[in-house]
Design brief:
single chain; about 100 residues; alpha+beta; 2 domains; two-stranded antiparallel sheet; 4 helices; 4 strands; about 15% strand
């Protein structure tokens, strides 16, 4: 993600993706590169193994809403924390439902 800044003030106004990677085209490259496991030096693992076994974590950048506003604009303090937890839970439930029909 790249920060977008207002040219006149220099204030950061948002983020934009730098590039997208199409996973099926990258699999041969991922399969050729090994990843070192600090917990088990006897195991050999590639980047492709990591992605297929979903052995990674990520950050939630944005949830779309009606006015395309960040949480901080319409909620502050404890309300913002509760709204963020609600969004995380909604996404967790949606992902869980994808795997368990």
């Amino acid at each position: 993600m790249k920060e977008k800044a207002d040219p006149s003030t220099g204030e950061i106004i948002g983020y934009s993706p730098l590039f997208w990677v199409y996973f099926p085209q990258c699999r041969p490259v991922f399969a050729r590169n090994e990843v070192y496991n600090t917990k088990n030096d006897g195991e050999r693992r590639s980047l492709d193994d990591i992605f297929w076994k979903r052995m990674f974590d990520s950050y939630i950048h944005k949830e779309s809403n009606v006015y395309d506003r960040p949480v901080i604009v319409y909620a502050t303090g404890i309300d913002a924390l509760l709204e963020a937890d609600r969004i995380k839970n909604d996404i967790f439930v949606m992902e869980h439902d994808l795997w368990h029909l």
